[in-house]
Amino acid sequence: MESKSLRPRHVEHDEIFNEVSTNEDNLDILSTYQDSTSKKRNKSVHKIPFLGVLCALISGLFFATASFIVAFVTSVDPIEILVIRSCIQLLSYVPIVIFKRNSFLGVEGERWFVCIRAVVGTISMGTGYYSLRLIPLADASTIIFSSPVLVTLFACAFLREPCGIFQVFTIIMTLTGVLLISRPSFLFGVTSTGKVSSAHRLQGSLVAFCSCITAALVFIVLRKIQKTSTPVVICIFSIASITFGLVYLSIFSKFSIPTCGQDGVLLILCGLCGTCGQFLLTTALKLEEAGPVSLARTIDVVVAFVFGVFFLDQYPSWTSIVGAFLVCSSVVITAMKKWRDGYKSRNISLSEKQTLTSKTLRLITHFHLLSRSKDEFYVLINVKS
Predict the structure, then answer these.
(1) Which of 116, 187, 343, 374 shows its CA 20 to 30 Å from the CA of 309?
(2) CB distance 213 to 157 below 8 Å
């Protein structure tokens, strides 16, 4: 009876146990984080170095080749080329959706965003293809390529993300580059460079810039699509492109059956290049961060200049070269800043997790020491009794 009365209350032990149990979720997070990081390290050992950057480079070659085919095959309307490419893309991704047993309607709660992405993406592709017929290939590709810079502007407007001096500077640099490429007559006078008149150049630049704006809106909408798989999004986008394209061609009577010779082969190649480029770009974003991928995508502009000079006899002027340099520079510094910010955030989160680990270990050590002291106290009481 006396030993029972001398035994200490369990309230203090329960309080400490409750304090430790409140950190069990943190311990689970830490354990899963350590397991995931170890798995990632094991995967990174077997991964080919710079595989993501290599996929981004190859995807840029595919996209530039598809754009070149649109500019080269002038006997077929650009919207009809978009329809043919979308058909090939749809046939390529439908088996993937069926194999993964995904719903073709998308995840509930994101279906409206998927539809908006499909419609806006169709407008972006259609205007981009039309701009390739009005202005040189390199100029149109450069203007469309500047969409990542405009993403920051729309993110500030629609997603309430911060917009500082850096974002304003890159936007001004991009718009200056686009202005030099378009060469409006009220600034540069009425000029005619090569086969493009001043009016067609301004019209084509506006159409390309419309494609750039809608492409930036596509990126904003994609941030709202978190659960729907990429093949489903691409399938719905392809269906929308085919539907709107056929309606447009039937209204304006611009539908024509392409010949089975060179044009037919090039149109099929355009669809395959677009599909392969989309697949490689998605793979690159899974293997690497967005910063290095954006830097690697600058090859689109370089290849467009090469195709334009050697195959289309489109020699760039000094304003096009300076404008392309400004646009590519703004995209590159934007990608490098995002890369640096992501690196800093990872280091901060890693240091916070390491701090949490050390605090949790100290708490567990204190708990074991307290339990050991209690066991020794029980032994001492039993010996005295």
Answers:
(1) 187
(2) no
128-144 tens-digit pLDDT? 999 999 999 999 999 98
The residue behind tokens 């009794």 is 385
Q: What is the pLDDT of residues 69-89, one digit of tens each?
A: 999 998 899 999 999 999 999
CB of 129 within 8 A of CB of 82? yes
Residue 348 pLDDT grade (very low, low, confident, very high; cuts 50, 70, 90): low
Residue 146 · residue 177 · CB < 8 Å: yes
Query: In this structure, what DSSP letter does residue 228 have?
Result: S
Which residue, 120, 334, 96, 344, is CA-closest to 220?
120
Indicate the helix (H) or strand (E) that contains 197: strand 196-197
- Put simply, whether the predicted model's pTM sits higher than 0.70 gets the answer yes
Q: Tell me if 1 sits within 8 A of 376, measured CB to CB.
A: no
Q: In the structure, how many helices (H) and strands (E) does the chain have? A: 16, 2
CA distances from 313 to 72, 267, 310 (A): 11, 21, 6
Predicted confidence at residue 359, as pLDDT, reads 56
**Distance between CA atoms of residues 197 and 126, nearest Å:** 22
Of the chain, the end-to-end C-alpha distance in Å amounts to: 10
Q: For 149-184, b where at least 16 C-beta lie within 10 A, e where not — what string?
A: bbbbbbbbeeeeeeeeeebeebbebbbebbbbbbbe
CA distance 299 to 322: 17
> Measured between alpha carbons, how far is 7 from 262 in angstroms, rounded to an integer?
95
- Amino acid letter, residue 233: V
* Listed residue (144, 114, 67, 119) closest to 241, CA to CA: 119
Number of Cβ within a 10 Å radius of residue 51: 13
More confident residue, 270 or 38: 270
Indicate the length of the chain as a whole number: 385
Q: Extract the tokens encoding 141.
A: 């590709």
Identify each DSSP E strand in 293-348 by its residue range.
none
Would you call 293 helix, strand, or coil by DSSP?
A: helix
The per-residue b/e assignment along 199-216, b for 16 or more CB within 10 angstroms, e otherwise, is eebbbbbbbbbbbbbbbb
Mean pLDDT of the chain: 77
CA atoms within 13 A on the CB side of 85: 34
How does DSSP assign 48-106, residue by residue? Answer: PTTHHHHHHHHHHHHHHHHHHHHHH-TTS-HHHHHHHHHHHHHHHHHHHHHHHT--TT-
